[in-house]
Amino acid sequence: MTAPWARVSSALAPVALIGGWTIAAARTADFDSVRDTISALAAINANERWIMTTGLAITGICHVVTATGLRSTPVSARVVLAAGGVATAAVAVFPQPLETHAPVAAAAFGLLSVWPLLAGTRRSRIAGLVLLALLAVFGVSLRSERWVGLSERVLAAAQSFWPAVVAFHTQRTLNH
């Protein structure tokens, strides 16, 4: 069973994240969404850093709240989702170019890619494998310095939507 407030928080997470990067990018003249990272929008020297910082913080908090409300999901998966939420909020606290930024961002991306593997359903395991594949593509783009922003956005969007899929699917399944 999923708590009703977990469905609300799971739906708010992608709105905060995608809305944050969309608004911040639109207000940053030299920003290229295909090339530049989400973290660049929240960097210490970014003009409108408060927008992306707020989006990251809200997204992280939403993941924690959602994890507490996914009652029919195994505890191990919920703990990893919550840890990914904490790491996402920490990305807002430790912006670029701080030395702690990259490890915190890596933890967030890793945890948010792995938690579906622990959820115990075939659908979630497939989602976890897709998220890990998207994470690998992002890693390759970082090394090649090509399409970094685009690959990061695809990964982050997928990671932010999956908790909502689980929350709403669980409720729909229980109602039938």
From TrEMBL:
The keyword Disulfide bond does not apply. The chain crosses the membrane at residues 50-70, 77-94, 100-119, 126-144. Keywords: Membrane, Transmembrane, Transmembrane helix. Pfam families: DUF998 (PF06197). This is DUF998 domain-containing protein. It comes from Actinokineospora xionganensis.
